[in-house]
Each structure stands twice: as C-alpha cells, then as structure tokens.
Prior knowledge:
This protein is α+β, with helices and mostly antiparallel strands. Helices cover 47% and strands 19% of the residues.
Amino acid sequence: MEIVLFGLLAVLLVFMFFNTRKRQKQMKAEQEEKATKTVPGAKVLLQGGLYGTIVAYDHDDLDSPALVQIAPGTVIEVHSQAILRVVEPTDTVADADLAASSHDAVVEETAPEVALETPEETRARLDRDSDGK
C-alpha cells in the first residue's frame, strides 16, 4: 500500500515539475513578445488603467523607468513592469464604414435641452434640499 502512495506522490511531483516549466516558458515568451512590441510610439495600457504612448523604453535594463506620454505635453516615468500590454490598433476604416451604413438606418433622437442654472440658483437649490433633511 505504501508503494502505491509513493508512486502516486512521484507522479504528482513529476506532473507539477513539468507544469511549472511549461508555465515559465509561456510567461517568458509573452515577456519577450511584449518587449519587442514596446517601442517608442506604441500605445500601451498601464496597470493603473491609464492609456499612453511610449516615449522611451530600454529593453535590456528593465529596472530603468519607461517614459510614457499620457496627454500632450505630459510625460510620466513608470516602472517597465507597469506596462500591462501593448494596445493593438483597431481597423478604424471598417468601423467608420459600419457606422456610416448604420447611421442611415437609425433615426436620430434629439436630446431635450437642459436648462443651465447660475451658481446662485444652484446654491439656493442645494440649501433648500439640505433644509428638508
């Protein structure tokens, strides 16, 4: 009975070893692919949810910060591992054709005009609302 348990343990350890090696190879391939796609001018998604454009990135030294432009004139330094993925450009021509063809078929509804209130009117409305509480 003990031999069967040791055999089962050995099979599980071998399976765990090969599964770990497979996952490591897959992660390394993904990192290399991301490194080749991460070039200046590429649009990226950062881990914080920000989209930006790569200004400078060093493939060899991953400890040096990458420079990412998140708005015109706004460049931030981020750790190279904060770049989650490179955003692939979408086919905007096909999207524009689809939008133009569906635009003809859809009847546009006009939004009702919203009356803008002055700051004094807003303050008076908020005071009325807070008095009732």
